[in-house]
Write a structure and sequence with these properties.
single chain; 282 residues; D-amino Acid Aminotransferase, Chain A, domain 1; D-amino Acid Aminotransferase, Chain A, domain 2; six-stranded antiparallel beta sheet; 8 helices; 28% helix; binds 4'-deoxy-4'-aminopyridoxal-5'-phosphate
Length: 282
């Protein structure tokens, strides 16, 4: 199994990361998770664009062009003969004596990547999942796909401890997003989701879903909605690269709709599946 280290494909035990790597010490870096279906990379361009955009937002120079990165990702998938799974990609600001300001002069970013086989969460996609509602305690630049994930990690842990699949966060009254997903409600034939501000990550899956809404004739309102409004939605779901269109059947103790995935959510699942690179996957 090969991994990516800067612009090299190598083995995991060859990789040397410094103990003063800024990703390790400060979470000073960015990442992407990209899905592979039947050997094909899904929405690779969108993920790579977001990777560069996250880097730009933290004034970090990536030493490779987007084309080189595309190529390296494809090489990694081929080398590892990955059929169904993910590519994880991250870049840190590099290894430099510990000091808060960005190193000046800059040191080279450290890029790492690997593949992992995963399965689609088919049982959950069919039955739907319960989630908890939790205060969003994260910082105010959630639009950056940053390695700083402690707020997200703490939220997800709360969900797990309550036997739930995800923690859907709210800042005050306003629903923002899940700890590792975007959140959507459907009421009277309209889909509601938080607008792409600094308070959420603009999920690639979210963008694909908004395209699916157009295709199936589901009107979209990108406006913040409250916890109370969330509980009045007919349908609710969350999305991410790994979980696709995941129906939510419980928000804390509140049962969504009749407690099973709603009709629009099912239509969105089908429209989403129709976009996957190959029909035959597990
Ligand atoms: N929000 C957060 C906080 C996330 O971590 C993720 C998953 N990376 C998402 C939303 C969904 O993004 P995507 O659809 O690009 O996986």
């Amino acid at each position: 199994e090969k991994v990516l280290w800067n612009d090299q494909l190598t083995t995991r035990d060859e990789v040397k990361i410094g103990i003063e790597d800024r990703g390790y010490q400060f979470g000073d870096g960015i990442y992407e998770v990209i899905k592979v279906y039947g050997g094909d990379v899904f929405t690779a361009t969108e993920h790579i664009d977001r990777f560069y955009s996250s880097a730009e937002k933290i004034a970090m120079a990536l030493p490779y062009t987007k084309d080189v990165l595309h190529h390296l990702i494809h090489q990694l998938i081929e080398e590892n003969e990955l059929e169904n799974g993910i590519v994880y990609l991250q870049a840190t600001r590099g290894d430099s004596p510990r000091n808060h300001p960005y190193p000046n002069p800059a040191v080279e970013a450290v890029l790492t990547g690997y593949t992992r086989e995963t399965k689609r969460p088919l049982a959950e996609l069919e039955a739907g999942v319960p989630v908890i509602l939790i205060e969003d305690i994260r910082w105010l630049r959630c639009d950056i796909k940053s390695l700083n994930l402690l707020g997200n990690v703490m939220a997800k842990q709360q969900a797990v401890e309550k036997g739930c699949f995800e923690a859907v966060q709210h800042r005050g009254d306003v629903i923002t997003e899940g700890s590792s997903s975007n959140a959507f409600g459907i009421k009277d034939g309209t889909l509601y989701t938080h607008p792409t501000t600094n308070l959420i990550l603009n999920g690639i899956t979210r963008q694909v879903i908004l395209d699916c809404c157009k295709e199936i004739g589901l009107p979209v309102v990108e406006e913040a909605f409250t916890v109370e409004q969330a509980k009045q939605m007919d349908e609710f779901f969350i999305s991410s690269t790994g979980i696709e269109v995941m129906p939510v059947i419980k928000l804390d103790d509140h049962v969504v709709g009749n407690g099973t995935p709603g009709e629009w959510t099912r239509k969105l699942q089908h429209a989403f599946e129709a976009k996957l690179p190959r029909k035959l996957y597990v």
